[in-house]
Amino acid sequence: MDKTLLHIKAFIAEEKQAIDESTHSILFTIPEIVDRSDEIVTAEAIYKAIIDKNTFAANPICLPCHQHRLEGGEPPCVGSWDVASAKQLKNAVNIRLNFAFQTKLGEAYWSNYSNKHMRAISIGFSSEESHVENKGGKQITVITLIELFEMSCVAVGCNQGALSKLKSVGEWQDFELSKEVENELRKIAEKIFEEKSAELRAEIEDLKTLIIPDSGELAELLLSGNDSESHTSAGKNKKSGQSTLTQILKVIEKHRSN
């Protein structure tokens, strides 16, 4: 099976005690949903991935908008997922997020989520095992084993019609990015473009130096032998032109060797 990076979305649970002001924690629900690619991740697969002590459970950090590094150098940590609170339901998995309330970033996200200005999280994973089932006349890919990479706070849940897929390491397609990440990538691209443009301009100038000798020297060569009295026949013109061209080539070779 190809290595593929996918995203599914989850939201704040509808339970009355989902938002706990005393512990600054919120309960989220990750449902089984058939996406527009006709794929579904089972609740069992999600739950097993969350509690896996060798992968996700070893470092259950919650990132801001899938960002692993922030511009100011501050820790990119909204909080941590309470793996012990994870519970597998019939068609969903519940898990609580403990916000890093003692940090500015954690406090800011807590304020937005506790007031439900933000409600979604995005979950990045790869499919390890799956099979196809016929449901309602449709061929549905049922994913039964996943590798969970991270669960991130986002402004908008992952667009089901724009799942990000990684067919091989370094080959990303249709990746849904947050505005912050888009701006960061744009800055990097602009910087690279400027550097490459400067390098190209320098190479062009070097090429000019090799191909075009000193303008004064070239002018003398072009004007040499161009006296109108010496051009009384086509033969003389041809001979004079060949002589001038030979001298120009010699000058170019001299500049190349230098």
Describe the structure.
- The protein has 258 residues and is an alpha+beta fold.
- It has two domains: 5-176, no CATH class; 189-257, no CATH class.
- Helix content is 33%, strand content 31%.
- It is built from five helices and eleven strands; from the N terminus they run E-E-E-E-H-E-E-E-H-E-E-E-E-H-H-H.
- The chain is elongated.
- The two termini are 57 Å apart.
Q: Spatial order of the strands in the main sheet? A: 1-3-7-6-5-9-8
User: What about the largest sheet?
Assistant: 7 strands, mixed, barrel
Tell the overall outline.
elongated
End-to-end span in angstroms? 57 Å
Strand content: 25-35%
Please, how many domains?
A: 2
Helical proportion, percent range? 25-40%
> Number of DSSP helices?
5
Name the helix and strand elements from N-terminus to C-terminus, one letter apiece. EEEEHEEEHEEEEHHH
Structural class: alpha+beta
Provide the low-confidence segments as ranges. 159-175, 227-231
Can you summarize this structure?
This protein has helices at 43-50, 104-114, 179-211, 215-223, 234-257; strands at 5-12, 19-20, 25-31, 39-41, 61-64, 79-88, 92-99, 120-135, 138-153, 165-168, 171-173. The chain is an alpha+beta fold and 258 residues long. A hairpin with a 2-residue loop joins strand 8 (120-135) and strand 9.
Q: Which key phrases capture this entry?
A:
258 residues, alpha+beta, 31% strand, elongated
